[in-house]
Automatic annotation (TrEMBL):
<dbReference type="InterPro" id="IPR016084">
    <property type="entry name" value="Haem_Oase-like_multi-hlx"/>
</dbReference>
<comment type="function">
    <text>Ring cyclization and eight-electron oxidation of 3a-(2-amino-2-carboxyethyl)-4,5-dioxo-4,5,6,7,8,9-hexahydroquinoline-7,9-dicarboxylic-acid to PQQ.</text>
</comment>
<dbReference type="InterPro" id="IPR039068">
    <property type="entry name" value="PqqC-like"/>
</dbReference>
<comment type="similarity">
    <text>Belongs to the PqqC family.</text>
</comment>
<dbReference type="GO" id="GO:0018189">
    <property type="term" value="P:pyrroloquinoline quinone biosynthetic process"/>
</dbReference>
<comment type="pathway">
    <text>Cofactor biosynthesis; pyrroloquinoline quinone biosynthesis.</text>
</comment>
<feature type="domain" description="Thiaminase-2/PQQC">
    <location>
        <begin position="12"/>
        <end position="222"/>
    </location>
</feature>
<keyword id="KW-0884">PQQ biosynthesis</keyword>
<dbReference type="GO" id="GO:0033732">
    <property type="term" value="F:pyrroloquinoline-quinone synthase activity"/>
</dbReference>
<dbReference type="Pfam" id="PF03070">
    <property type="entry name" value="TENA_THI-4"/>
</dbReference>
<dbReference type="InterPro" id="IPR011845">
    <property type="entry name" value="PqqC"/>
</dbReference>
<dbReference type="InterPro" id="IPR004305">
    <property type="entry name" value="Thiaminase-2/PQQC"/>
</dbReference>
<protein>
    <recommendedName>
        <fullName>Pyrroloquinoline-quinone synthase</fullName>
        <ecNumber>1.3.3.11</ecNumber>
    </recommendedName>
</protein>
<keyword id="KW-0560">Oxidoreductase</keyword>
Length: 246
């Protein structure tokens, strides 16, 4: 098998992981995008997903602290700017807090992360540690869930606008921005992984890292579904419908 064919088959292997394991198939997302969520279920999603969003730049900063290649650092740091913004009041985290305000939540409460589900916190923190501690190839490969993100953002934008009164250009701005940011990030990340995963062992490690990341995303939705949809068991300390509202 020549190198180009092996590279092509490896990319197909990565994409198949997304086809089979990405969290667009989770019942909570299906409920959300079809308009089946109550406003409190949407709020619970916003509260918990914020924790993931807020840790993405921390994850990327931990990654950069280990990178010796100036070119890789230069390209990767745009991910932090996308979430934190280049100046105060901008960036993906602030856009997520605008969504929080739009669904009737106090943005300061959401930003405090006080109401995050234990399982959400555990899964997200595990991802940050993975990127901080694992080989660079594994860390980059874990980010490749972005391969599958534009499709879910398109579904989400359409579903929210169709079914929910809170949805407008301001409240869904986060997802619209990701339509252009994610493809740029993944084009580089995918190319980097394909270039650096040269052996069967390295390709296995990269594939397993991507599987791990899909599990991180799936676990967050499992926790949401269990707490707020069925059987509706909210653990102590997690967000309750009467808490953190404007």
């Amino acid at each position: 098998m020549n190198i180009q064919t092996d590279r092509t088959s490896f990319e197909a292997r990565l994409r198949k992981i997304g086809d089979e394991l990405y969290h667009d198939k989770h019942p909570f997302h299906i409920l959300l995008h079809s308009g089946g969520c109550t406003i409190d279920q949407v709020r619970a999603w916003v509260v918990n997903r914020y924790y993931y969003q807020s840790r993405i730049p921390m994850k990327d900063a931990a990654f950069l602290s280990r990178v010796e290649d100036p070119n890789l650092r230069r390209i990767w740091r745009s991910r932090i700017e996308d979430h934190d913004g280049r100046e105060e009041g901008t960036g993906g985290i602030m856009r997520w807090l605008k969504l929080a305000e739009g669904v009737g939540l106090d943005p300061d409460y959401v930003a405090s992360a006080r109401g995050v589900l234990p399982a959400t916190r555990f899964a997200v923190d595990a991802y940050v540690r993975f990127v901080r501690d694992m080989p660079l190839l594994d860390a980059v490969a874990a980010s490749l869930t972005e391969l599958f993100a534009p499709a879910i953002h398109e579904q989400r934008i359409a579903g929210l606008l169709k079914h929910y009164d809170f949805a407008n250009d301001d409240t869904i701005a986060y997802f619209k921005h990701r339509l252009s940011e994610a493809p740029r990030d993944v084009a580089f990340g995918l190319g980097w992984v394909l270039d650096h995963a040269q052996t069967a062992k390295e390709q296995d490690a990269a594939a397993n890292a991507l599987i791990f990341k899909t599990q991180v995303l799936w676990a967050q939705l499992d926790a949401l579904y269990h707490a707020y949809v069925s059987p509706r068991h909210i653990p102590p300390g997690a967000w309750h419908p009467e808490e953190g509202l404007l």
